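Repro:
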Amino acid sequence: MDSAKPDDLSFQTGIISRMMHLYGCAGDAGLAERLGVQKGAVSNYRNGRRKIPITLLYKVAADTHTTLDWLMAGKSAEPAPVLMVQETERYRTFQDESAFTNYLPVRLLRDSIAAGTPSEIRDGDIEGFCLIYADKSWMPGAPEHYTCCRVRGDSMYPILTSGDIVAIDHSQKDPARLNKKLTAFRNGDGATIKWLSCADRDRVLGIPENKAEMESTVCLVGEEIAGGIIGRVAWWWAKR
């Protein structure tokens, strides 16, 4: 069972209430019928025993011609940029005809394959999806150029710490343009985040923010540079 966290309970209760308002339902049975689910499923969503699938949110918004922002937060004004994470093993509902143009999905990868390029990603590599507010300031390039992964370790503390999520723009790998920017480097089969520093023409360093972790400094020389840089960290999300 995929239980919602206790602090998500009021969030889910609010969503169910807004669904009932949209469909004009007075009870769980009526809402379940409109959603095409069993009555017990609505109760489980309301009580936080199960997360409300984002596919169901999409269906309700499309059926009722409302926005995802109002359905999830009761907001009718233009939403501020946010990041939501939908953790799932299977996700097949993002289509071009989707009614939700306010958000774009970026694949959230497992650490062991975070160093791979977007074109190498397979279904089994995906932990879930980050739903990113569709704004050019957040995602100036094509969505397919981006992947997300979780931070491991505290070498970038206090900017980043273990469990935070970073979005990597794989189209930006020129060390000269990445100088003094947060950059994802290859680290074995995974990725590590560091400040990129162009030490000289043939040497690039990845320097940690946390000076107690200086031993984790990355040093790329010559031909290692092209293969060692994954891409620029476009933004990050810390739930703390």
